[in-house]
């Protein structure tokens, strides 16, 4: 079991905020910014949602107090999207307001395709009020190119990722080549058309190289983003070339869905996880 915990800990900064802040300080010392996420999703009761909102408030205060170069990332289903959309929006608004007051950026993660439209609608609504909020868009979704074009018309802030949920081929590209091709296509749109800041969030070296090429042609305000514990040797190479890099740092006790998504990205880990439980 001890091996299993170490296995999980490669992707998780700890079980509580204080541990995540300590990890964040270490990353900041290396010149890497952080994006903190309190783990938890698909919450069904208001008590857990309210505790989550409180945790994000505490996070903003601590980021400020400890002078951390870092932002926040939230999932709408941890703010009550499954309970009531208006309630979720009010919770998001409270966090966005506190971020705004403390000059912090707030990202909204993109969850499964069941929530895509609602998440975009809520994003556009919050972005009318607070310009410090960004939204994650997944290149595996067939609809994403249109979504990005629409969001860019409103000067939206976009983080581009490949997408991590199990989805049907009705809504997503299934083949890696197709997902990568769409990532490149959307990335080009971002470099050409975005009038705002954006993020290229991938560990895929080919796509990172393409982004670097595009950045020489179009002088845009963008950053690279990667996950805590993934492709550690690639991170200093990006910094060395003078690019901004942020690392997504999740923490908390509710780590199972997040870790399962990481295992799915690297199936060889399955054997390791299996061995650490049963051998
Ligand atoms: P790809 O999976 O092709 O991997 C590229 C290279 O990195 C490969 O060599 C691969 O082996 C290695 N690699 C990838 N994952 C690894 C792992 N877990 N361990 C070790 N090596 C690994 N998704 C989503 O649906 N909604 C969201 O809101 C977000 N948010 C988000 C924020 C940030 C900052 C990042 C970096 C990523 C996300 N994601 C996400 C996750 C994203 O959709 C995607 O699943 C992962 O980033 C992995 O895809 P890559 O682009 O790295 O490519």
Structural class: alpha/beta
State the end-to-end distance. Answer: 10 Å
Order of helices and strands: HHEHEHEHEHEHEHEHEHH
Number of domains: 1
The name of the CATH topology is TIM Barrel
Helix percent band:
40-55%
Number of strands: 8
Radius of gyration: 18 Å
Mean pLDDT: 94
Beta content comes to 15-25%
**Distinct small molecules bound, one entry per kind:** dihydroflavine-adenine dinucleotide
Give unreliable regions as ranges.
none
Query: How would the global form be characterised?
Result: globular
CATH architecture, please? Alpha-Beta Barrel
Task: Provide the spatial order of strands within the biggest beta sheet.
Answer: 1-2-3-4-5-6-7-8
Largest sheet: 8 strands, parallel, barrel
Assigned CATH class: Alpha Beta
Q: What's the tally of helices?
A: 11
């Amino acid at each position: 079991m001890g091996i299993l915990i170490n296995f999980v800990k490669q992707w998780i900064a700890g079980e509580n905020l204080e541990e995540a802040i300590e990890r964040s300080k270490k990353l900041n010392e290396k010149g890497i910014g952080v994006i903190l996420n309190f783990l938890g999703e698909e919450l069904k009761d208001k008590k857990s949602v309210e505790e989550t909102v409180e945790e994000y408030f505490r996070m903003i205060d601590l980021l400020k107090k400890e002078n951390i170069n870092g932002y926040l990332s939230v999932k709408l289903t941890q703010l009550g999207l499954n309970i009531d959309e208006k309630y979720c929006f009010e919770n998001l608004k409270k966090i966005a307001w506190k971020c705004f007051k403390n000059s912090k950026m707030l990202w909204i993660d993109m969850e499964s395709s069941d929530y895509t439209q609602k998440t975009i609608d809520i994003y556009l609504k919050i972005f009318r009020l607070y310009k410090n909020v960004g939204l994650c868009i997944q290149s595996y979704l067939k609809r994403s190119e249109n979504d990005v074009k629409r969001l860019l018309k409103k000067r939206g802030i976009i983080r581009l990722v490949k997408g991590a949920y199990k989805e049907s081929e009705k809504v997503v590209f299934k083949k890696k080549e197709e997902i990568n091709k769409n990532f490149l296509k959307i990335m080009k749109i971002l470099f050409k058309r975005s009038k705002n800041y954006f993020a290229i969030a991938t560990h895929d070296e080919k796509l990172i190289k393409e982004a670097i090429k595009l950045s020489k042609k179009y002088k845009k305000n963008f950053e690279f983003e990667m996950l805590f514990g993934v492709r550690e040797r690639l991170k200093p190479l990006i910094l060395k070339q003078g690019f901004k890099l942020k690392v997504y740092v999740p923490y908390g006790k509710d780590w199972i869905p997040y870790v399962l998504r990481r295992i799915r990205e690297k199936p060889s880990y399955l054997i390791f996880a299996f061995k650490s439980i049963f051998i």
